[in-house]
Amino acid sequence: APETPAALVRWGTTPKQVTITGTLSTIVEKAASAELKPPAVLVVGQVVHLRESLLWYENRPLMGKRIVVTRAREQASEFVKLLSDLGADCLEYPTIKLVASDSSHQLDKAIKNLPAYNWLVFTSVNGVAFFFDSLFKTGKDVRALSHLRTATIGPATAKRLFDFGIRSDIVPETYRAESIVESFRHINIKGQKILLPRAKDARPVLPVELKKMGAEVDEVTAYCTEQVRDNIDDLISQLEHHEIDLITFTSSSTVKNFKRLLPEKNANDLMNNVTIASIGPVTSDTAREMGFNVHVTANTYTIPGLCQAILEYYNKN
């Protein structure tokens, strides 16, 4: 019968899903009007009315939003899953990869001299991972750290340290170097020796301020970030065709390397009407210095915090 309910579903169960409903007498006209093209599935019958109560998939808050994840590929899975669960179509275009430092001998030397240190400070999950890789390669284990007190920036870093059986003595309330500095102001570290394994070219505020308190700080490079250019032509093409809604930055290095990937002649045009979301104020400041307009800055400087900030942004806009 012409009045029989009908629905057309294109790209079903993906973030690009499009559904058109009508009847057998109207569905062709509606499909043409919406420029719906194959492949699609045609559903015919009273079951179409169930869509109103089974619309959970399409009602997800980020449904239809195409979001670029620039984080290193080995770290992106949690972020991609959280965004995808909210309905986003995630495109992985890592702009960096993490590699061991060329000056890793500095870290090896510090590990051999661990008995001389009083504190071990980690500023990122990566710093923890690369430090323990080096520790184990030297033939030592966590018992070599039994005399040390530890400090970490943020719960994710503290959790990664606890994966190795060590509970951090200091985990500040906010997730940046300045917060660790404030925590140390309540502790007498004058004359104490602090080991700080972290990324090459990290912000200098932490070692500078700790030295002002009288501590002896050994800042060693545990790892470096290198630029990644995989599939850059695809990314540029999608930007040219305005197929990207939002780009995420989870560190200053992702910002800097993303900027280097854009052709200078039309970088501004490519980013026109693209929303920028940053994991925290330091990354946002870097993005602005690089010429980007930052629309979203997470209040909690973690991956779940960034997802929440993106969600709140789209709820308001």
Describe the model.
With 317 residues, this protein is α/β, with parallel strands linked by helices. It has helices at 27-33, 77-85, 104-112, 125-137, 155-162, 177-184, 205-212, 232-240, 252-261, 267-270, 281-289, 303-316; strands spanning 5-10, 18-23, 40-44, 66-69, 89-92, 96-100, 119-122, 149-152, 193-199, 216-227, 246-249, 275-278, 296-297. A 5-stranded parallel sheet has the order 5-4-11-12-13, with helices on both faces. Strands 6-10-9-7-8 form a 5-stranded mixed sheet. Strand 1 (5-10) and strand 2 form a beta hairpin. Helix 4 runs parallel beside helix 5 (155-162). The longest helix has 14 residues, at 303-316. The chain is elongated.
User: What is the 3D shape?
Assistant: elongated
Number of strands: 13
The secondary structure category is alpha/beta
Query: In this structure, how is the largest beta sheet organized?
Result: 5 strands, parallel
Q: Would you list the SSEs in sequence order as H and E?
A: EEHEEHEEHEHEHHEHEHEHHEHEH
Number of helical stretches of at least 4 residues: 12
Mean pLDDT over all positions: 92
Radius of gyration, in angstroms, nearest whole number: 25 Å
The share of residues in helices is 25-40%
Measure the end-to-end span: 42 Å
User: Largest beta sheet: what is the strand line-up?
Assistant: 5-4-11-12-13
Low-pLDDT parts are none
- Beta-strand portion reads 15-25%
